[in-house]
Specification:
By secondary structure, the protein is an alpha+beta fold. The chain has one helix and three strands.
């Protein structure tokens, strides 16, 4: 698939809780500028992380895409 020349992609890796991830995803998909999450990978951040806990650390890798808006366009 050919991308538009003004498309921007960013890959981000972070560690945070499930609640923080939910807030981040909501902000990305509903805020401006308009961004979409193309891919998302979530894993427990440590071997001792307890599954199912909202504040357990998670390692998140995501690819986010947006369009570059040029001034005057």
């Amino acid at each position: 698939m050919q991308e538009a020349p003004d498309a921007i992609r960013i890959q981000a890796t972070l560690e945070n809780s499930l609640n923080a991830l939910q807030a981040l995803l909501y902000g990305l998909e509903t805020g401006t500028p308009y961004l979409t999450v193309d891919s998302l990978s979530i894993q427990a951040a440590g071997a001792g992380a307890q599954a199912g806990m909202a504040d357990a650390p998670l390692r998140v890798v995501m690819m986010v895409r947006g369009q570059w808006r040029r001034e005057g366009a």
